[in-house]
Amino acid sequence: MAQSTVNFRMDEELKKGMEKTCKDIGMSMTTAFTIFATKVNREKRIPFDLTAEADPFFSETNMNRIRRAKANLDAGKGLERELIEVSGE
After folding, report:
1. pLDDT for the residue 19
2. 19 in any annotated domain
3. Predicted TM-score of the model (pTM)
4. Is residue 67 part of a domain?
């Protein structure tokens, strides 16, 4: 199969982060992009959801609230609650 070179620009920190993640997984960035391109070609779509709205759970306000709650629990303040499992009927 003939090979082709693809060049594009991306933020340097984004590239470094992706290189590290790919290395941790045990693959190169070329392999990761080839997997992505293969999946796009097979499925005829971007293989993940794209939205203009961020998940509100991960908003900075909510993450700060979670960090404060964790710090309070770690300091012995606040309440811990047990999770109650509810079986579906």
Report:
1. 96
2. yes
3. 0.55
4. yes
Instruction: Give first-to-last CA distance, the chain, whole Å.
Output: 54
Q: Is the pLDDT assigned to residue 51 strictly greater than 90? A: no
The residue length of the chain stands at 89
* Measured CA angle at 20 (ends 27, 63), to 5 deg: 125
Helical ranges in the chain per DSSP H: 12-25, 29-43, 60-74
Distance CA 75, CA 1 (A): 61
Q: Kindly state whether residue 66 falls inside one of the protein's structural domains.
A: yes
What does the radius of gyration of the chain's CA atoms come to, in whole angstroms?
Answer: 21
DSSP H or E stretch at residue 72? helix 60-74
